[in-house]
Here is the input.
Amino acid sequence: MIGIGIIGAGDFGAAHARAIKQVQGLHLVASCRGNNDALAAFTSEHGGRGYTDWRKLLDDKDVDAVLIASPHHLHAEMAIGAAKAGKHVMLEKPMAPTAAACDAINAAAAAAGVKLMVAHLMHFALPCMAARQMLEQGKLGRPLVGSSWIIKLWMEHNRRDWHLRKATGGGMLLTAGIHALDRLVWLMGDDVVSVSAMLGAMSHDQEADDTALLGLRFAGGGLGQVQSVG
Here is the structure.
């Protein structure tokens, strides 16, 4: 039985807690959230111990792996801490707001010999899996140009203040548009060598973006475009 700890016991933490109950061989050992009342409600519904300090959760010897669903700017410190504590890591997207932070997470996981997975769910969506399979079979040839977009309601019920600020890794692109970007890179099957981008808050009074247009150039010469619109 693999013991799971959830760091970030909010809306997405709850979605993962419900999923854990459906997977044989997993059980929720502990959860972490700074708000005592919200944490108590979470553990009452989903079970397990409650911690208000994520470091204390990492000290729990019954936790084998952690699910990190915290605000984006906290991902790197928590994921690196988990790796150093010998815990396997499932990290919610985006991996981190900067490339340097992503590199640091990868290095920590490699040094500790733990498994690290970023929760890019498009890899498990049936239409995307079918498209990937067709491309891998080679019957359609090599993809040269790709376009991917996500257009959705931005001000959802779970939108928080940190989603609206740049310093905390907020904005539509990192919160939701990352799905469109990841999907395109995955289906093109090639490394990105250059990126151009235009971002802005077009429809909402906020610091971080709600709209982004990205242009990608791939190592093999392919081109891509990504639209992220909230």
